[in-house]
Amino acid sequence: MEQYKVLGHIGEGAHGVVQRALHRPTGRDVALKKLYVRRPDEQVPIQILREIKLLQKVQCKHVIKLLEVLPQGICFVLVFEYMPTGLAEMIKDARAPLTEAQIKRYLEMLLQGVEYLHAQYIMHRDLKPANLLVSYKGVLKIADLGQARMFDEKATEERPYSHQVASRWYRAPELLYGAKVYTEAVDLWAVGCVFGEMITKAPIFRGESDIEQLCVVQKLMGTPSTKDWSQLESLPDYNKITFLPMKAVPFEQVIPRCSSSALDLAKRFLVYNPDARISAKAALEHKYFFSMPLPCPMPEMPKPFDGHREKINSKECDTGDSSGLLCQKFNKIQIN
């Protein structure tokens, strides 16, 4: 660790803190993610080992690069390339609203990263703007693989996972219904949420609790049915929570002021039935990316300045109505 000089605080999560640092020998800025072991006599938590193993496995220009792993006392320090901001801050930056061409390029980079991860049989399970970082050159990179897991398409038995993954506003419906067996399609729902957020400048599904999140999704997408989603009734929490029947809001109102091709692509991500969601590979071939305006050329993409993350996050951003008010106004929730 003597090779690194800590320059400041970037953020913190459930398992550690992230700091900006200088690599003394090269003069390169890096990000240090400290993952703590609760007690020195404990074994290294499996979650930490999984994250390190997965990061060492991936080699993609749209997934954050792990440079080094250092043991330090009761923690492991993961050294990453430094990124001055994230997509969340780029969306919030009112001084430079994202154009349609820029949104297309960001979505294209996100899909290229997701396609790579899925080709390596990796589910990210926590895609959201805060975990999508942007370099000084404007390149988007998927970060934070702390909840990522390997999956096996060829397995003869379905493998159970935790349903308590993904940040609530980006959590797929099958997870909200308690599914413990699911696929990489949970990432594609999240991609659709991120896509909608880039267009509307606010999360499109905003619940204050897991139950309310399901309420908000159904308020906008309508009540799911077994006709379109055959596995619905077999989900663990399906019979525990019921809502009054709801009709879907026209998608033009869910994601307003966007092109017909953008709307069509968003609909293909935001589908109740996970088996019906468009794959990252197929999405990259969608007409949206080949219609005018074309994806913004990389030299013309926004180049975040040093301190962009801190400047944007120092301002309070109210990005929309409370979903709680939506549920109170339009629905009643019954918990069985």
Automatic annotation (TrEMBL):
A GO-annotated cellular component: nucleus
Domain Protein kinase, chain residue ranges per copy: 4-289
Keywords from the named record: ATP-binding, Cell cycle, Cell division, Cell projection, Cilium, Cytoplasm, Developmental protein, Kinase, Nucleotide-binding, Nucleus, Serine/threonine-protein kinase, Transferase
Name of a matching Pfam family: Pkinase
Gene Ontology molecular function, alphabetical: ATP binding; cyclin-dependent protein serine/threonine kinase activity
Biological process per Gene Ontology, one example term: cell division
Binding positions for ATP per the UniProt entry: K33
Keyword flag Cell cycle: yes
Protein family: Belongs to the protein kinase superfamily. CMGC Ser/Thr protein kinase family. CDC2/CDKX subfamily.
Record protein name field: Cyclin-dependent kinase 20
